[in-house]
Queue: 3 jobs
Job 1
Amino acid sequence: MKMPVELCQVDDYEVVGTEDLGQDWFRLDIEAPAIASTARAGQFVQVRIGPGDIPLIRRPFSIFDVGPQPGADATMIRLLVQRVGAGTRAMVQLRAGDRIDLMGPLGHPMPRPELDATGTLFLVGGGIGVAPLYFYCRELVNESCAHRYKVLLGARSRALLIGLEAFESIGVETCAATDDGSSGYHGNVIQLLGDLLDQLPEGDAVAGIGCGPHGMNLALRKVAVERDLRFWISLENYMPCGFGACFGCVIPGPPDEPPRYRRVCVEGPCFPAHELPEQF
Ligand SMILES: Cc1cc2nc3c(=O)[nH]c(=O)nc-3n(C[C@H](O)[C@H](O)[C@H](O)COP(=O)(O)OP(=O)(O)OC[C@H]3O[C@@H](n4cnc5c(N)ncnc54)[C@H](O)[C@@H]3O)c2cc1C
Ligand code: FES
């Protein structure tokens, strides 16, 4: 497999559409054929904000979707942007016709666990983590895979459940969990996952991918390690460069290997849960 950086393009591209999704969430549609045609779910782009040097550091964003369909004919990428600071504030002010400087696709695609028809793949998301999981589901829908897959989305309350309708609109079985019980399961998404795992017939194969806030990722790792499940967790560490040069994104290596650091941007961003230390 080629290293992600070998397929990476750097250029400026045209914004072709934007949408305010409410609650500080926005969608940006960008005509970027060089990125869209090779991008796979789980990969990300580094966005350069503004024409000058401030902010100097690019900002990483998962590819939320490509259009019209995932694959070599795709010409457009979509980003789901949560407005949190100066960089994202500038991004969500872009309008159709504006240009945006992107570097990508970067990082490895999310894995495809092998499961038979009785197996279930759980896709566990929270916050901005829903972006790569949606692209992943679009790929699974196109490939008509044999096993079941189920999206579990968590948020503090109903209004913050970003992406729920998008998953449902492509026919993916989706369960919501809210801390305040305003939609779906009353509790957090890891508690929901635990309940669903308990209900599965003994012997059924299970795998999963999670992407969410740090606390969710830590809790997911714990469940996966304690129950000895094949889960992967996609990390969203601070990433100054995104292509392996700065070591600004490192996590400790697997606990059973000689001590070393792993760069999340080029070795990940998705890692097997059992390779992650208790704190990462
Ligand atoms: C692999 C990856 C995928 C991501 N995908 C998405 C996504 O799909 N949608 C989305 O809205 N956000 C995503 N993020 C987070 C996004 O990069 C930050 O929200 C953004 O960089 C904030 O920039 P800012 O200038 O608005 O905020 P700032 O005020 O600069 O910072 C606000 C927060 O963003 C974090 N941040 C700032 N710069 C970086 C950086 N270079 N790398 C990582 N985090 C940074 C800071 O640590 C801080 O917690 C992703 C991050 C990573 C690492
Ligand atoms: S962000 Fe620079 S090495 Fe990973």
Job 2
Amino acid sequence: MAAKDGKSETCRAPDVRDLGRWDIGLGILDVGLCSLDFAHWTLGIGLPKLSPMPDLLVNLLNLPPLESQLKQLASHGVLIRRAQPFELTAVRDFIRKHFSVGWADEVSVGFANKPVSVHIATLNSKVIGFAAHECTRKDFFGPAGVAPDMQGRGIGKALLLASLLALRESGYVYGIIGGAGPVEFYQKTVGATLIAGSDPGIYTDLLK
Ligand SMILES: CC(C)(COP(=O)(O)OP(=O)(O)OC[C@H]1O[C@@H](n2cnc3c(N)ncnc32)[C@H](O)[C@@H]1OP(=O)(O)O)[C@@H](O)C(=O)NCCC(=O)NCCS
């Protein structure tokens, strides 16, 4: 997903400088949350068309193994690990730079959890990706993102698995991906299934 150019047809990660902004001459609506997708709109009648952003269910008992993937990434210098409390600013800065303030705020809640419910990918001691769970709701996965120039290398999948395994370790049998954007990514990597009637979910009545 190209988070900053609006090309994605999935969950749009709003840019910090342009938080899901659409301007149709009548006003500007700024939205900063994962579950809204303003990439689709109907220019003909000048109104935005919201894409479905369903919640997904993941069976945490059927997750694919993570170990071999961790080793492979490590051989390229990419480490996947839980974030430390004192890394809040570095992680927030990464999220604000590549995604949005809204996601940075959401993830801040994960830094208040013990243990921290945020995993990061690092390369040369820099953040290149993140995945959070239990931030906006209990048992929820997300938000998550990988730096655009690092995508397509298995980092997003490893972060997702690390988060879901943490959910399992904390006692859940099923995990929820709230307001999922790249639905196919979740279906493919962890066998996620659509939760019927889940759209709209919790991301409603958003502040402008
Ligand atoms: C979604 C995202 C985290 C995936 O990270 P990534 O590191 O690029 O993904 P991976 O390289 O681990 O991909 C794992 C597999 O999923 C596939 N995949 C990745 N993104 C996909 C997508 N949007 N749709 C379908 N399949 C996708 C890959 O092709 C790969 O398949 P393979 O194992 O057959 O090679 C990343 O694209 C991203 O940061 N997107 C912007 C933010 C975002 O949308 N976050 C989710 C919000 S709900």
Job 3
Amino acid sequence: MRHQTPFRRLSMSLSEPPSSGRSSAILPAPSRATTANRSAGALSGNSPVPAVRYEHIEVTPLTPSIGAVVTGKQLRSIDAATFEEIHAAWLRHLVLFFPDQALTPAEHLAFSERFGTPHVHPAAPYADDNPAIMVIHTDADSKRNNGGGWHTDVSADEQPPKATLVHLHQLPSQGGDTLFTNMYEVLATLSPALQAFLTRLNAEHVANYSGFYGDHAPQRASPKCIHPMVRTHPETGRNALYVNPGFTRRICELSDSESAALLKMLFEHATHPRFQCRYQWSRNALALWDNRCTWHQAVWDYYPETRSGLRVSIVGDRPTYRADAVGTDGKKAYQNGVKGVA
Ligand SMILES: O=C(O)CCC(=O)C(=O)O
Ligand SMILES: [Fe+2]
């Protein structure tokens, strides 16, 4: 398979930063481990996380930056070794897609719970009398499409969901794709001076679900929270930009006009296609994404057709920036990497 460059067994610990011991927080120089792997030709795509050899699943990357399709297993019955591989692939590719998963809502929930405690959405309708099983549904009567703009899930919560698992049961005849963005790379391709500045800033995230889900009564008040703009991923030790157009309203330490200008610039930078993948769903596919280092957006291009399924999210940590983190990934700065005219 083109993605597999076996040089290292999965027994490596991905719960530790890939290059622990590195002290400089944010300088965009490759870590020693990364450099060694690169010269050995061991990296696939842009990930600084070492390649792994999978023995229980097949993993096919969608782009060098983000996303992989995982085949070979039914998620309703996986053993601990398979789960470990899925977890490692998730940390490496940020979003995984599992086609052809025959899952009842209870099985979807049970697989999701292997990642932690289910998160209850503040306002969305739910299935099976269980507020942890959120309904995803858009049809000809919908006023809006859930997840239709770039966002990370419920980032206005004090402990936003770390993982989201969406299983789609009904699809339109065409369209209804979901796009994902790699927010590690978005940060890493900014100039070192701007990265360093961002590590000192916090931003306010505000949700307003009032009327969003029609007549459905909310589970709780719409949340509001202040989070650091650069977030250190607690499992990979890598830094990601943690602001998004869906929920981030202003940068606390700046004036209104400075805040608006910087957020506009960051949002534009983050929407470059080089950081993205786009998934074309098939019926009964399940997507698993990491909200700590990605954005996503569901495209509503299939009106008046119906698209529906279920979602379970898993509670994450309170976002923090760690000055002793692995840092960013040594990408070329934005002006060297992605600007261009044609
Ligand atoms: O329907 C989708 O593809 C994703 C919608 C969304 O943003 C979500 O469920 O978090
Ligand atoms: Fe979402």
